[in-house]
Each structure stands twice: as C-alpha cells, then as structure tokens.
Write a structure and sequence with these properties.
Elements lengths: L4 H7 L9 E6 L11 H7 L4 E7 L18 E2 L6 E4 L9 H4 L4 E5 L10 H15 L3 E4 L11 E4 L14 E3 L4 H11 L6 E4 L27 H10 L19 E4 L4 H10 L5 E5 L15 E7 L7 H15 L20 H6 L3 H7 L4 H22 L5
Parallel strand pairs: 1-2, 1-5, 2-4, 5-6, 6-9
Antiparallel strand pairs: 3-4, 7-8, 10-12, 11-12
Helix pairs in contact: 4-5, 6-8, 7-8
Length: about 400
C-alpha cells in the first residue's frame, strides 16, 4: 500500500504548519486513502486554521467538463472561506489572495504528461509565494502511468506556455513532488519549497498498483486506461481529428468523418507498434469536435504498458492518417490555444516545431524518435540527481 503525501500529513502534521493560516490548492482527487477530501481533513484539524481554498483547471470538483472552460471563485458554503479560481480571471494567485494565508499547501494529481496544466498552476503558485515570502508545501501523489516509458520531445524554452513551463519530456515519468523539485532547482529557486514525498511508491507502478483510490483528475481522463494513452493522443487536440471528447472513452478513441477507418487500421497493424492493438470503433461525439456527426474511429487497446510508447505511437498514428486519408483529412489547427495567441498549438503541446515539420514533410519517424531518445538521455542525467524515487 502506497501512502500519499496527504496520507502522511493527515497522521503527522509538519511543525511548520502548526498555528498557521493555511491555504489549499486542491481538486477532486485530493483525497486520503480512506476517501476523505483534503478540505475536510484540514478544516477538522485543530493544529492550524484553513483560511482559503484555491482550485485549478476544471474546478474544485471537476465541474467544467470540456477543455479551456474557465470558472470563477466563490465562498465555500460550509466552511465560509473563499474559494479562489486559478483558471479564470486569475491563473496566478494575487498578492491580495495570499494575504489571507501564511502557508500554501498543494495537493494535485498529475497525469504524467507535461502539457497537463496542474504542474504549471503549481509553478505559478511557487512564483507568487516566492514573491510574497510564503512557504509552499507540496503533497506528493503517484504518477498514474509510472510504468509507461518516458517518451517524446523535451520542451524547448522558447515554447514555454501554460501547457508547459519546464524543460522536461512530454511523457516525463515524474511525480508532482518531483516536478516541484525540478521547478525549485531550475525555475523558481527562491521558493521556500517543502515536499512531503510518498511512502512505498516506485516507477514500475501504475495507479492501480498503489492502493490509492482512483479519482478522475479531469473530466476526460475517467480511467487509468485513458491516462496511459493520454500523453500521446492528447496531441490530437491540436488537429482537426476528434480525440474522443464527447464519447465515453476519450483519448483511447480517435477519429473523424473524413478518414478511412479500414485503411487506417490495416496500415497501423502493419507497423507492428509495440504494447498495443487497434480496433475499429466508430462513434458520434456528443460535444466538442464533430458533435453529432458520424466519425470513423479507432480505439487503442494497451496490451503492455511497459512497452507502450504513447508519444511514439501517436506519431505513427498521425503519419498513418496522412498516408491513408484524402487531402485535408489531417490538418494542424491554428492558434489560439490555452492562452497562447501566436505559437502553433501542436508545437506547444509537443515541445517544439520539429515533430510537426516531420509529419508535414513525411520525413523519417525513426530519426525523430532517435532525437527524442537523445533529449531524454540528457534529461535523465539531470533528473536522476534530484529524483526522489529510484525503483
């Protein structure tokens, strides 16, 4: 049984929290193993006072279903304290908000993909708290796809946005606590950071191996299966293809009205992509791209997560769509995307412009993957020196 940072803190309050006014940045998965939410645990504690709650993208309890839907703060009806949105008018806590707290405690469930916004809300909070002289405590949680290989390009600094603010791979292998350590070392060095690391976790684990209850971290990652494919198929958000939003298996399922599912499956099968199988599954999205339209689709079935390269698989899928579909069936969408008005959405998601150009010009996929391997090896030289887990 793995103990999360919250499990540990709920049994033994750190001395630096005692007697303080506490702010919480949390969301629906911020629960202990006994299913108690962190707001209940902290509001019941008599060793400090909970005075403010902050919520990231999708709201405090996942109420905003679709992507890029803002929400605004309110007052908690039971606790009678402010709930501040960090995905609306504000993405960074204002100094006025921070005047209500002495310490900010952060408990967020990451998805194992660099472009997931919670890590960058963490970064913005670390920056604001550094300016205000407020300590930050990060309660560590499992990387839900820890067994999946690290994969994809390392983000280049000129492509930093709200969907990426550190030079790490797309499928990064890090926990939220390790991301905080990386940010402390390379991006927000003045932050008074304190990480409560898990007990019993290692990188061979999927979330289902931990004993920690699965709570969907965002509305379109309902299961561990969707989380495994997400670091690759999330790139479809930047294409004119449906990533399965509006279906019951988003990110496992992709398609469009103008692709040929039979040809696509035949080509994908011939590529012998490791760790997965493909199956035709047509669908009609209920919202988002192609809402109400019949889409020829494919579902990805991951057969061995330890051999499944999510970004590499997505690259093969995109190349296959280009080669098996009519002109216009595969297009890169223009900006804006997630508050970025000029850079191409695909580039800020993938990490640079190279993958897009490889696909546009039908260049070698093997050479592109070799580029990622080199970048990942350089990343690992640095990461292994600061990582908290070595399993």
């Amino acid at each position: 049984m793995v103990k999360s940072g919250l499990d540990i803190v709920s049994k033994s309050i750190p001395a630096r929290l005692k007697g303080k006014r506490i702010g919480l940045l949390c969301h629906a998965p911020s629960i202990a193993t006994d299913f108690r939410h962190i707001t209940s645990i902290f509001s019941d504690c008599r060793e400090f006072r909970l005075t403010a709650i902050f919520g990231p993208q999708h709201g405090l309890f996942g109420q905003t279903q679709d992507n890029m839907i803002e929400w605004e703060g309110t007052t908690d009806p039971i606790l009678k304290i402010p709930v501040f949105s960090l995905y609306g008018t504000h993405r960074t806590p204002s100094q006025k908000m921070l005047q209500q707290i002495d310490v900010l405690v952060i408990d967020l469930q990451d998805a194992g993909a660099r472009l997931y916004t919670y890590a960058w809300t963490l970064k913005l909070c670390m920056e604001a708290c550094s300016t205000a002289g407020i300590p930050v405590f990060v309660l560590d949680r499992p990387n839900p796809v820890g067994r999946v290989p690290i994969d994809g390009p390392v983000l280049k600094r000129e492509f930093f946005t709200f969907v990426g603010g550190a030079e790490i791979p797309l499928c990064h292998g890090m926990t939220i606590g390790e991301i905080a350590l990386w940010l402390k070392n390379f991006e927000v060095q003045d932050c008074d950071l304190n990480v409560i690391f898990m007990e019993g976790w290692n990188r061979k684990m999927l979330h289902s191996d931990t004993g920690i209850p699965w709570v969907l971290p965002s509305p379109n990652l309902p299961t561990q299966k969707s989380a495994i494919v997400y670091p690759g198929t999330v790139l479809i958000e930047a294409l004119n293809i449906s990533e399965g939003r509006g279906s019951t298996i988003p990110f496992e399922l992709f398609g469009a009205p103008n692709i040929n599912g039979n040809l696509l499956k035949k080509d994908l099968d011939a590529r012998r992509i490791p760790g997965c199988a493909f199956r035709i599954h047509n669908f009609i999205p209920t919202f988002n791209k192609y809402s109400g339209e019949f889409c020829e689709g494919i579902q990805i079935h991951v057969t061995d997560p330890s051999k499944y390269y999510p970004v590499g698989t997505a690259l093969e899928i995109f190349d296959s769509i280009i080669r098996t579909s009519a002109d216009g069936a595969f297009k890169f969408l223009p900006p804006p995307y997630e508050y970025e008005e000029s850079l191409m959405p695909f580039d800020i998601l993938s990490g640079d412009s190279v993958m897009r150009k490889v696909l546009e010009n039908k260049l070698s996929l093997k050479e592109e993957k070799e580029r990622w391997k080199y970048e990942i090896s350089e990343f690992l030289k640095i990461f292994r020196a600061i990582s908290a887990y070595h399993g």
